[in-house]
Design a protein that fits this description.
With 446 residues, the chain is an alpha+beta fold. It has helices at 3-10, 19-26, 46-59, 113-122, 139-144, 186-191, 207-211, 245-258, 269-276, 280-289, 306-323, 337-344, 373-387, 420-439; strands spanning 15-16, 39-41, 63-66, 85-88, 95-99, 104-108, 125-127, 162-169, 174-176, 219-230, 234-242, 264-268, 293-301, 331-332, 335-336, 360-368, 395-401, 406-415. Strands 5, 6, 7, 8, 9 and 10 form a six-stranded antiparallel sheet that branches. A six-stranded antiparallel sheet has the order 11-13-12-17-18-16, sandwiched between helices. A hairpin with a 4-residue loop joins strand 5 and strand 6 (104-108). The longest helix is centred in the C-terminal third of the chain and has 20 residues, at 420-439. It is globular, with a radius of gyration of 22 Å.
């Protein structure tokens, strides 16, 4: 490998070959097999990324783009072949433009949720966030991976809230998607009051949809624009508990029909307790005090008549809940809905909520519709029994997407990575459940 050429591109101090550096990227917290990279490079700007891709073509070297901090979970930051170079984009930290009027932010690939969320709040806008992301998780990486966001009422298609991107395609060409494609430079577009909020372009082609889910195999995205939402003047949150999932999915469909909610999601008590507690003792106490399934819904009022808006939505949804023999509560036991809202509107506290209790978590997630989730819960329970895993300790998260037309169903398998027997059982369950779920109609889009 021509290390001298890499030094000319990014500088010698931005190439890392120590055992510690390589070990960080040789494996992650998933069950993906570990392969050690040749080296790690940290470009400082898009021009260096472009040169790196051109160099990789000339030398037939595989590149693995990474933009989030550790720990990693899904195997997409681990090389699949030997001799690969990790392109760590964490130094691309520019928040190029935060436009509160058009509610859009242009950010480089290394900007994290922990960095962006407070900056947007200062500008009076907010991000449509996934559920409790790691503070050091790249916002652009999350959007490219189509992680579901908690406010489905603002999601008009699967690409939202991602809009435009700048990408270095695999042949080394720089390309811009959406309205950022032109005509004119970004500065000329801004002067003409354009804000890079339209994902379609060039022409009517939405190249951003091609890049989503590609995990760097088509190109490396250096910056992206993401749609934001107005910061509410007033919010009020509610919890709806139930003994079975189906009745809560009916309630969620009614909420989506009213286009009423801001944050709206369904968790089983295992995942809710894991997200809100910081010790095994607190987890057990909260879990045992909760109903098996909980729907969380936040209502919001904005600049004009916020109290009146929340009041009529609260009344309308309360009547829908009564039709299902449910009730919208401000608290369940000692658990306050408003306290949960405060937690959900920020990244996860450290340690990350999915590994806080047991040390590791294997995710299984797919797309479906809310009315089919119960079938998949039964499939997971059957596969867990075959693998020797206690299904009662498995977390479930259902996130309505695209205004309730679909949802992500996620199963979280918590385990102790230091116990070989637990690791083996979870690996066996992951492999058997993925096949069983797919055969049952689960759509693995990510």
């Amino acid at each position: 490998m021509a290390v001298k050429e890499l030094q000319e591109i990014v500088g010698g101090d931005m190439i890392f070959e120590s055992e510690e550096s390589l070990g960080e990227y040789a494996k992650d917290m998933s069950i993906a097999p570990g392969i050690r990279p040749r080296c790690v490079v940290k470009p400082q700007n898009a021009e260096q990324v472009e040169k790196l891709v051109q160099w990789a073509n000339a030398t037939s070297t595989s590149l693995v783009p990474v933009s989030s901090g550790a720990p990693h979970f899904r195997g997409d930051t681990v090389p699949s072949v030997g001799g690969a170079v990790i392109v760590d984009l964490s130094n691309l930290k520019k928040m190029v433009r935060i436009d509160a009027v058009n509610r859009v932010a242009m950010i480089e690939a290394g900007v994290t949720f922990g960095e962006l969320v407070p900056k947007l709040k200062e500008a009076g806008i907010r991000l449509n966030m996934p559920l409790l992301p790691r503070a050091n998780k790249s916002v652009v990486a999350s959007m490219l991976d189509r992680e579901p966001v908690m406010m489905p009422v603002y999601q008009w298609d699967s690409q939202d809230p991602l809009t435009c991107t700048e990408v270095v395609f695999g042949n080394g060409d720089m390309f811009r998607t959406g309205s950022a494609a032109g005509p004119g430079t970004l500065e000329q577009q801004w002067a003409a009051k354009q804000a890079q909020v339209n994902p379609m372009g060039p022409g009517q082609t939405t190249f951003g949809n091609v890049l989503q889910g590609a995990q760097g195999t088509l190109g490396i995205v250096t910056w992206a624009t993401v749609r934001c939402e107005e910061l509410p003047a007033l919010q009020e949150a509610f919890l709806v508990g139930a003994d079975n999932y189906e009745i809560l999915s009916d309630m969620a469909y009614r909420i989506m029909w009213w286009k009423a909610g801001e944050e709206c999601l369904i968790l089983d008590r295992n995942n809710l307790a894991a997200a809100l507690t910081d010790s095994p003792e607190a987890y057990d106490k909260l879990k045992n005090a909760l109903p098996p399934w909980i729907l969380f819904i936040a209502l919001a009022g904005f600049s004009y008549f916020p109290e009146e808006k929340i009041a009529y939505l609260k009344k309308a949804l309360g009547e829908e809940a009564k039709k299902l023999d449910l009730s919208m509560e401000k608290a369940i036991g000692d658990l306050s809905a408003d306290e949960i809202l405060n937690v959900l509107q920020a990244p996860s506290a450290e340690p990350y909520w999915k590994i806080r209790r047991t040390g590791a978590c294997q995710e299984i997630f797919f797309s479906t519709t809310m009315d089919r989730v119960s079938k998949f819960v039964d499939v997971m329970a059957e596969e867990a029994a075959r693998s020797g895993v206690d299904a009662a300790d498995m977390g479930v998260y259902v996130q309505p997407m695209v205004q309730g037309t679909s949802c992500q169903c996620e199963f979280d398998l918590f385990y102790d990575p230091k116990k070989a027997a637990e690791v083996a059982k979870v690996k066996a369950l992951y492999e058997s459940a993925a096949a069983a779920l797919m055969n049952g109609g689960a759509y693995f889009s990510r």
